[in-house]
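Here comes just one.
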Amino acid sequence: QVRLTESGGGLVQAGDSLKLACTLSGVTFDDYAMGWFRQGSGKREFVASMSWEADPENYADSVKGRFTVSRDGAKNALYLHMDSLKPEDTAVYYCAAHYRFRYSTYRRDDPRYFDYWGQGTQVTVSS
């Protein structure tokens, strides 16, 4: 059974850093493209993705230069290192996985591209 588990959220001040982690269990990690999304008061929005090892990273414009996504196949983990956090980064952050051998018509920055989701971790940035 596929399971995604996020951790690392919390309450920080503007300008601080935070690192989120997501572990994928129950399947072969390298078979899955991975991404991060967030949801504040509106709809769920794309943050970053890294489909597999050595794949180019993709970022939303709002986080480019501040966030870094990485994955570690040895630990079945996806990370999101967030620097220079802003109050507008406040949201529930979700990890998502897509079985890379399943064809999808959606872009990798579209939540409909992904098959599995974690429960989310809250990030709150105070001003």
The CA atoms of residues 32 and 90 lie 27 Å apart. The mean pLDDT is 95.
